[in-house]
């Protein structure tokens, strides 16, 4: 028997090795769940056709439409119209590929469609101990369940379609220990923005993060997903949280969750997954949640973030020339100056959505804060549920009515303004507070300027018409 | 895939850290269903002004940068989105290699699968290469994959690391999907020994 103490990552990795790593070849790793979408899969299917290959495990593959899909309201026939002919062609191609290769597909506007990283957990497909991949870097989201989940390129999508396997070199492990407890008005999003601000967007390169500590254990599954989602923003391909009762309660009863005796057996197995007490990590970083404040980004990568009450740093304070050029270029793009505060900075748009923050708990929190209040004149607020199921649930709870009464737009499900390739985008020069994951130049529309923040900060900003600290609104509530 | 061995090429430097794949190829170019036309979108928002005219200040628009096939860029090149359109666009434009102090993991994998060499050098060499571009634009360097060396114009050789299996595939034109397919007996055995209890996705 193998008595060597192991981390959560090592247990999952070892259980999926089809052929171990050797001096000359990487490991062949088995993949339990492959999620696909319209943007990163077409060329992979072309490769299968060119070689006359089939999809090895269509029963372990699921497709959805999310990236290039509009989120505009349905027409009188209940259809969400796709006006962009190139996007329409891409969606058609996915439909044809799924039909030809026998892959289940959630098409635009149907009851289970939504952002790929929202629907996996929602359907109970995402389970502890699994290996999960998708041609999308935010696949790290699924690691919140104690799964090994990471983004892959289109060549690798073809590899998994054809063989259900990937060639992988074993990454190193990094424990990200978050001690203490969050204060009111501070959320999971602030934890991950603080981790990235502290360690940089390249700090996790080559590592798999395992988030541990009291603050992580206290989080709900949806909050853990927010944190794991942005692991890639810290450079780590995957982020994980050891499964516990919070995890099991969330998975239980979902459409693809095991039932009856199979459920009991699954939970018994899942309880063996957490990192052994005497296992070691290659690296460790720590953060104290108790002293965290709401975070906001000021620049053009998610590492350019700070406590919301701080001032923007000076590029001249950086010794590395390439770092100085990057920050200088970022501030020029953002039209911001060193020493300035972001609090009180006017914004034109507030975006509540994306695979980071578009789940029902995000919408509940936002609606609660917005109830009885108004979005400031001149501010456009988009609320984009992560899936049709989230939308349905929110409407059943009347959340949509709160958003609409406040003057926000209630949209269909999709990636929307996080990727801005679907009609939802900023105009050049506009400022937005966004609950999404990337503030790269042009990410939310050419010339658009993004401040990343939590849903609470986004709502406080929408109400004030300028960047605002949500803790002040909580005090006056 | 065509085997890659050694080549000599012009360099161009973009000495900015953390260049993300949204800059390499903006999302508006991701609506294609093939790999064509991506070169025109390469660094689109940096290469062109708002009115669509070329931005003369952007390095790739400078006359000395024409024909450059080796891009020198700041650390953590290719971070962000997993889009393989990034290496496709770089190759479509003519690049054969990118040199940086380190690369984002997914970009590095994607580049290697397409024969775009992600070459890692130490910080000192990186800044030497940046200076070389600034002082002698249009200069060339030699890349030798088999020996894993760069040769600078002054004759100095710099070793670079590369994953052994990826190197073998690139040198011999071996395709990784083909290699994976050859693992079929092991995959069958794994599936037999791990009869997953997961329900069939419908």
Remind me, CATH topology of chain B? Aconitase, domain 4
Give the structural class of chain B.
alpha/beta
- The biggest beta sheet of chain A, please? 5 strands, parallel
The profile of the biggest β sheet of chain B is:
7 strands, mixed
Number of domains of chain B: 1
The pLDDT mean of chain A sits at 97
Which strand order spans the largest sheet of chain A, edge to edge or round the barrel? 5-4-3-6-7
Fraction of helical residues of chain B: 25-40%
The helical percent of chain A reads 25-40%
Spatial strand arrangement across the major sheet of chain B: 4-3-2-1-5-6-7
Distance between the termini of chain A: 58 Å
Instruction: Tell me the number of strands of chain B.
Output: 7
Count the DSSP helices of chain A.
16
- DSSP strand content of chain A: 15-25%
Biggest interface reads:
A-B, 88 and 60 residues
CATH superfamily of chain B: Aconitase, domain 4
**Secondary-structure content class of chain A:** alpha/beta
| Uncertain regions spanning at least 5 consecutive residues of chain A | none
Could you tell me the mean pLDDT of chain B? 96
Main CATH class of chain B: Alpha Beta
Describe this protein's structure:
The complex is a heterodimer of chains A (477) and B (202). Chain A is of the alpha/beta class and 477 residues long. Chain A is built from 16 helices and 19 strands. Chain A has a 5-stranded parallel sheet with strand order 5-4-3-6-7. A 5-stranded parallel sheet of chain A has the order 17-16-15-18-19, covered by helices on one side. In chain A, helix 6 (188-199) runs parallel beside helix 8 and helix 12 packs parallel to helix 15. Chain B has 202 residues and is α/β, with parallel strands linked by helices. Chain B has a single domain, classed as Aconitase, domain 4 (Alpha-Beta Barrel). In chain B, strands 4-3-2-1-5-6-7 form a 7-stranded mixed sheet. Chain B is globular. In chain B, 44% of the residues are buried. The mean pLDDT of chain B is 96. The chains are: A alpha/beta (477), B alpha/beta (202). At the A-B interface, helix 2, helix 3, helix 5, strand 8 and helix 10 of A face helix 4, helix 6, helix 7 and helix 8 of B.
């Amino acid at each position: 028997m193998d008595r060597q103490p192991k981390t959560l990552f090592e247990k999952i990795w070892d259980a999926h090795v089809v052929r171990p790593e050797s001096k000359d070849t990487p490991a062949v790793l088995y993949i339990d769940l492959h999620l696909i979408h319209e943007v990163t899969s077409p060329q992979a299917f072309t490769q299968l056709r060119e070689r006359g290959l089939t999809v090895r495990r269509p029963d372990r593959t699921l497709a959805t439409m999310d990236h290039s899909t509009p989120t505009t309201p349905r027409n009188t026939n209940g259809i969400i119209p796709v006006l962009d002919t190139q996007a329409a062609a891409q969606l058609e191609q996915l439909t044809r590929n799924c039909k030809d290769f026998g892959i289940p597909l959630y098409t635009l506007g149907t009851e289970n469609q939504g952002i790929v990283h929202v629907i996996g957990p929602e359907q109970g497909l995402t389970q502890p101990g699994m290996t999960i991949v998708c041609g999308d870097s935010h696949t790290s989201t699924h690691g919140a369940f104690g799964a090994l989940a990471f983004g892959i390129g289109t060549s690798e999508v073809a590899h998994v379609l054809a063989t259900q396997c990937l060639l992988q070199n074993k990454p190193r492990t990094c424990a990200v220990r978050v001690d203490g407890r969050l204060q009111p008005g501070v959320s999971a999003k602030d934890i991950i923005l603080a981790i990235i601000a502290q360690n940089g967007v390249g700090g996790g390169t080559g590592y798999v993060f395992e988030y541990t500590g009291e603050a992580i254990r206290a989080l709900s599954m949806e909050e853990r997903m927010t944190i794991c989602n942005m692991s890639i923003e810290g450079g780590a391909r995957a982020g994980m949280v050891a499964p516990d009762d919070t995890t099991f309660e969330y998975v239980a009863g979902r459409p693809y969750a095991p039932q009856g005796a199979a459920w009991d057996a699954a939970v018994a197995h899942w309880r063996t997954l957490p990192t052994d007490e005497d296992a070691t990590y290659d690296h460790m970083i720590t953060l104290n949640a108790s002293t965290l404040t709401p975070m906001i980004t000021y620049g053009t990568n998610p590492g350019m973030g700070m406590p919301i009450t701080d001032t923007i740093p000076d590029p001249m304070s950086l010794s590395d020339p390439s770092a100085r050029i990057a920050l200088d270029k970022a501030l020029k793009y953002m039209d911001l100056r060193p020493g300035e505060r972001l609090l009180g900075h006017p914004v034109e748009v507030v975006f509540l959505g994306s695979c980071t923050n578009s789940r029902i708990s995000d919408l509940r929190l936002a609606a609660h804060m917005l109830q009885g209040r108004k979005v400031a004149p001149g501010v456009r607020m988009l609320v984009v549920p992560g899936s049709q199921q989230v939308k349905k649930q929110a409407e059943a709870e009347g959340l949509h009515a709160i958003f609409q009464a406040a003057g926000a737009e209630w949209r269909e499900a999709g990636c929307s303004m996080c990727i801005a390739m679907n009609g939802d985008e900023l105009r050049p020069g506009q400022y937005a507070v966004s609950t999404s994951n990337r503030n790269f130049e042009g990410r939310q529309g050419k010339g658009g300027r993004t401040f990343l923040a939590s849903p609470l900060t986004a709502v406080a900003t929408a109400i004030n018409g300028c960047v605002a600290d949500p803790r002040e609104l909580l005090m006056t509530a | 895939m065509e085997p890659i061995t050694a080549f000599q090429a012009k360099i161009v430097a973009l000495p900015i850290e953390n260049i993300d794949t949204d800059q390499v190829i903006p999302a508006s170019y991701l609506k294609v269903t093939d790999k064509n036309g991506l070169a025109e979108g390469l660094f689109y928002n940096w290469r062109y002004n708002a009115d669509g005219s070329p931005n003369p200040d952007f390095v790739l628009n400078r006359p000395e940068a024409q024909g450059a096939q080796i891009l020198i860029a700041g650390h953590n090149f290719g971070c962000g989105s997993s889009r393989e359109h990034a290496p496709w666009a770089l190759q479509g434009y003519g690049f054969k290699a990118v040199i940086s102090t380190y690369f984002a993991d997914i970009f590095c994998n994607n580049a290697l699968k397409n024969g775009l060499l992600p070459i890692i050098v130490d910080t000192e060499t990186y800044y030497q290469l940046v200076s070389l571009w600034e002082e002698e634009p249009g200069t060339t360097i030699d890349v030798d994959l088999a020996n894993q060396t760069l040769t600078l114009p002054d004759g100095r050789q710099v070793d670079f690391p590369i994953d052994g299996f990826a190197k073998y595939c690139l040198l011999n034109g071996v395709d990784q999907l083909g290699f994976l397919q050859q693992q079929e007996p092991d995959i069958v055995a794994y599936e037999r020994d791990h009869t997953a209890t997961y329900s069939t996705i419908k």
